[in-house]
Amino acid sequence: QLAGLAVIAFGLWLRFGGVMADFASDKRSPEYFFMGLYVLVGTGALMSTVGFFGCCGAARESQCLIGSFFACLLVIFAAEVTAGVFAFIGKKVAIQEAQKIYEDIYDDYMKNPAGKVNSTIYHYHSTLQCCGKGNTEQQMGLPCPENIQKASNCLVEIQNIIDANLHLVGIVGIAIAGTTIFGMIFSMVLCCAIRNTRNMI
């Protein structure tokens, strides 16, 4: 249950409180990345629910409930492995999607510097601590943050941020998988212990 709540909190922080949350401030956002976070939050909620029923099964010494708990953990473990493979394969797509959003905003700004996109592109530059798409010519005339010493390539910064966040998701996924394996082992040990105790009686 605690692991599930921790996963929910982590997923919600990445979605609404981390740097990636700033990508959702615009109507265009990298939904591919956020879809993975929604799956993470859903997995956490499922883990908490399954953990509650596991506690009930242990308290009542019910082989049926503990067996169901083991089966649910097995399904969660399989889902985690699938999600991990999906995240690894889809990382490139998520990066390209986020970079495409910035390039569209950049092009809109170049067409109409005085429009609403002015504040949007500044928001991206301020959040990512970057300016433009690399060379000095592309940075001239852009609303860059005043506090950055050297303006870096925004496309590179987007890739770095998504890489870092997916790395965190991978670490959390490995931790969840480890917890799930221990949960399956202990549930089977407990189930066998209950059965042996009843056989002795």
Features:
201 residues, mainly alpha, 2 domains, 6 helices
In short:
May play a role in signalling in oligodendrocytes in the early stages of their terminal differentiation into myelin-forming glia and may also function in stabilizing the mature sheath. Helix content is about 80%, strand content about 0%.
Descriptive report:
There is one protein chain. The model has no long low-confidence stretch (mean pLDDT 75). This protein has helices at residues 2-17, 31-60, 63-111, 117-128, 136-139, 154-200. The protein folds into two domains: 1-60; 61-200, no CATH class. It is built from six helices and no strands. 79% of the residues lie in helices and 0% in strands. By secondary structure, it is mainly alpha-helical.
Question: Based on DSSP secondary structure assignment, what is the total number of beta strands?
Answer: 0
Please outline the major beta sheet. none
Shape summary: rod-shaped
Radius of gyration: 23 Å
Number of helical stretches of at least 4 residues: 6
CA-CA gap between termini: 32 Å
User: Number of domains in the coordinates?
Assistant: 2
Average pLDDT works out at: 75
Note the topology.
Elements: H1 2-17, H2 31-60, H3 63-111, H4 117-128, H5 136-139, H6 154-200
